[in-house]
Amino acid sequence: MKTLGIIAEYNPFHNGHSYQIQKAREISHSDCVIIAMSGNFVQRGAPAFLDKYTRTAMALKNGADFVFEIPSVFATSSAEYFAAAGIGILDALGCVDMVSFGCETPDLRLMTCLADILTEEPDAYKMILFSLLKKGLSFPAARKQAVTSYLKENTDHFGCIFEDAAILLDSPNNILALEYLKAINRSRSRLRPLPILRKGAGYHDPHLQQEFCSATAIRSRLLAESFDALHSSNRAKTSFHTMPKSGLTTFSLTTQPQSDLAGILSCYVPEYTAAQLLAPDTHFLTEQDFSEILYYKLLCEREKGFTEYADCSVELSNRILNILPSFLDYRGFCERLKSREMTYSRISRVLLHILLQITQADLEAKNTCGPAPYLRLLGFRRDAAKLFGEIKMHARRPLITKPSKADGLLTMEALSVFRKDVFSSDLYYGMLARKSGKEQKTELRREMIIL
Description:
By secondary structure, the chain is of the alpha/beta class. The chain has 21 helices and 12 strands. Strands 1, 2, 5, 6, 7, 10, 11 and 12 form an 8-stranded mixed β-sheet that branches. Strands 3-4 form a two-stranded antiparallel sheet. The radius of gyration is 22 Å and the shape is globular.
């Protein structure tokens, strides 16, 4: 039995994701597809638009056979940690043969060459990188220039590929693909990479204008629709519920056939995804929903600073303290903190780490228990139960099917990472309850999805 692995966020699941699963399965002739997916908070430093169980069901309804959760400590960190955790999970299952990823430049030879350089970090490359960082460039910009300069200086060995490398390093999906290859190198994994050409809109494209649009565009449209509906009395198909205690305004969208939004979404997402997105009891979370909690957290800890939290430098900690009096909301604060040296995404992740209490010591758990300290199963398809037996037999990490049983399965180091999942999910579901007005199950009471 051939098994294919994919690392994803599905925030939310759309036609591009469905295409990747189908195309990768076709090329690899795989019998089963296993997904390693972010939980309730994602890598860009924000809550997932929909909770992890809803997104798990979307994946299982559209070609996936199993979905495992990437621990929140790593899922909300840099691309390097995110990729290492995803690869670690797929490798530790003991039954996955290939890992597929979408990218704009599916040139495996070129990507392998760049990944080797970034893994080995030759002295000449590191000298160039450090000099560019000292000039004030952000890390992504400095790394791109350092790689292309290093290749230019070594054309006898690498040939004239520096122009192709520069183009490749301009794309977020290509950069993430390189991190997957680096993780395979460093872990000496037997997983074989399978790049798939990403079709349609760019990763950050906010417009619904191509057959395969971005998740960003879908989220933007749904949020815009809710905003317009909130300020328009003649949108009869949208209902609102104001929570008097919290002051939050929530919305839900009906799935009536005549709904303009339903017709639009049907072009970009599978039927099951559209039904979930437009269901009257569906509520979306964004980083803005956590603004008040973040402000309170920052105030509580301003005396000691924030350098203990993952990825937070002394400079950024001081900048947070200096700008804190002007805090208005999560996004606005990120914009105020952004600088030439510090990207918005990096800042958003640091603020999320502070919110979720993810410290540098938590990230260093990767050195003791690895980037995949356990295998948390979120859901699976009944017709793939045969593979479930193989996973139980060959898995090289503890398999968690009931979160309430984790204490008896994990080492102290792994349990510390797992408890961050519990805390972050309970925070997520608490905010969801506040928006929906409906009580939510805590993380330890939740059960996996079986379809």
